[in-house]
Amino acid sequence: MALDAPQQPQNLTAPYDALLLASFGGPDGPDDVMPFLRNVTAGKGIPDERLAEVAEHYHHFGGASPINGQNLALQRALVAELDRRGLDLPVVWGNRNWTPYTKDALAAAHADGARRVLALVTSAYGSYSGCRQYREDFWSSLDALAVDLGLPEGEHPLVLDKIRPYFDHPAFVAANVDAVVEALAQAPDARVVFVTHSVPDTMEEASGYAGATYSEQHFEVARLVAQGVAERGGRAPEWDLTYCSRSGPPSQPWLEPDVNDHLESLAAAGVTSVVIAPIGFVSDHMEVVFDLDTEALETARELGLTAVRADSVGVRDVFVRGLVDLVVERAAAARATDAGQPAPEPVHVGTLPPRPDVCAPGCCRRQAGVDSGRLAACGVDPRA
Ligand SMILES: CC1=C(CCC(=O)O)c2cc3nc(cc4[nH]c(cc5[nH]c(cc1n2)c(C)c5CCC(=O)O)c(CCC(=O)O)c4C)C(CCC(=O)O)=C3C
Ligand SMILES: [Fe+2]
Asked: Residue 123: nearest ligand to its CA?
């Protein structure tokens, strides 16, 4: 009997004491807009005209970005799902570019006794913007917190790990399939125009270490979503991958086609109906409510195209459950690694290799071969 005794119930989120929901941040009101934009673009070579234009996008919505409310909703949904599973893991929320800042979220977790924290970023894809730039923010936030706490030089107050880019997690794909199926119900013959944030070609090229590049990750998600739609009993839709929110000087090449240009090509080729699916964004950020719902839908109207915007994954149950699955998976990997054992195979779909939990040296740089000059947490080599 003794041998068959049930195993001790295991704490599925050990060794983590807290979850950091790490996001981009956005202004909460008109006075925040310019200081926020200066934070985002410091040293990035974004022309002033572009900044003024983006400021207008925010003022169009009363100077407040929808992203903060969406992150609060996601934080609440994660807390509810952890609670439902009986997992005792507090969730703190911190941003790279606006309050509440990462450092303050980590300070709160630390004050509550957290010494090992897991980060979940609100970007599903690997690139400088969606991965390493967050990791640089983690490092500098830990440095700043160490100073506040009076720690000796070079010592960090807690250990921070990160969940891999999760574009290839079945729940992210499934939530996008649901959203596209719902949109297609309103426009049954539509062509599906997937959209993500454009990045400079140089960033695209540097995003591919140990796996596919930023655009290749999106092509794979688009293919899997279209396949998922077909498997739901619908037809296999025709689809394209397009980009929005280009900035930078016109002389600098960024990923194309722009969604508006592409709608024009489609209309010229006789397409009459489109579903616009923002697979590059986990919730309805400013890029979605302005660049898509305001600009791209207006372009479609002018072209006489019927256009329906599919939801971003937001706080759909299937997505939130998947994020908590990723937390549990990452914790199991940490326990295995700590015990000198191999980590279990990460759950993923599609043909690309899953991104590693611990970033490889030199992964996701801003530009290949160019050191950003900033140290980054959650990688084997903070410098590379
Ligand atoms: C790949 C990617 C994502 C997706 C991954 C992720 O989600 O993290 C993303 C998200 C976001 N980008 C956002 C806002 C901005 N991005 C900017 C500028 C830039 N983004 C870039 C890339 C990305 N950005 C790049 C290469 C630049 C050029 C400057 C640079 O090289 O860094 C600028 C400056 C003005 C402009 O140039 O447009 C703003 C205001 C917001 C908040 C929106 C809201 O308020 O709801 C979010 C979620
Ligand atoms: Fe951006």
From this structure: 1
**214 labelled binding-site residue:** no
156 DSSP assignment = -
What ipTM score was computed for the predicted complex, to two decimals? 0.94
Q: Tell which atom from ligand 1 comes closest to the C-alpha of 58.
A: 45
CB contact set of 353 (below 8 Å; sequence gap of 6+): 210, 211
The answer to whether the beta carbons of residues 165 and 130 sit under 8 Å apart is: yes
- Ligand 1 binding pocket includes 54 (Cβ within 6 Å): yes
Examine domains 18-166+317-338 and 170-309 and report if their fold is the same: yes
Give yes or no for residue 199 CB within 6 A of ligand 1: yes
Tell me the backbone φ, ψ of residue 91, rounded to 5 degrees: -120, 120
pLDDT of 133 reads 96
What lies within 8 Å, CB to CB, of 191 at 6+ separation is: 237, 238, 239, 240, 266, 271, 273, 274, 275
Reported as type and span, the H/E element at residue 19 is strand 18-23
Distances (CA, A) of 198 to 34, 106, 125, 249, 289: 22, 30, 12, 13, 16
* Rounded distance from Cα 269 to ligand 1 centre (Å): 31
Reported CATH class of domain 170-309: alpha beta
Ligand 1 close to Cβ of residue 197 (< 6 A) = yes
Preceding amide of 170 cis, omega within 30: no
- What residues does each domain of the chain span? 18-166+317-338, 170-309
Q: Looking at per-residue confidence, does 208 or 224 come out higher? A: 224
Please work out whether the CB of residue 278 comes within 6 Å of at least one atom of ligand 1. Answer: no
pLDDT in tens, 16-66: 999 999 999 999 999 999 999 999 998 888 888 889 999 999 999 999 999
Amino acid 182: pLDDT:
97
**What fold, for 18-166+317-338?**
Rossmann fold (3.40.50)
Say if residues 207 and 214 touch (Cβ distance below 8 Å): yes
C-beta of 21 in contact with ligand 1 (< 6 A): no
pTM of the full predicted structure? 0.95
Distance between CA atoms of 311 and 136, rounded to whole angstroms?
A: 30
For the Cβ of 26 lying below 6 angstroms from any atom of ligand 1, the answer is yes
Give the ligand whose atoms come closest to the C-alpha of residue 33.
Answer: 1
Structure tokens at 218: 């999106």
Q: Is 127 annotated as a binding residue?
A: no
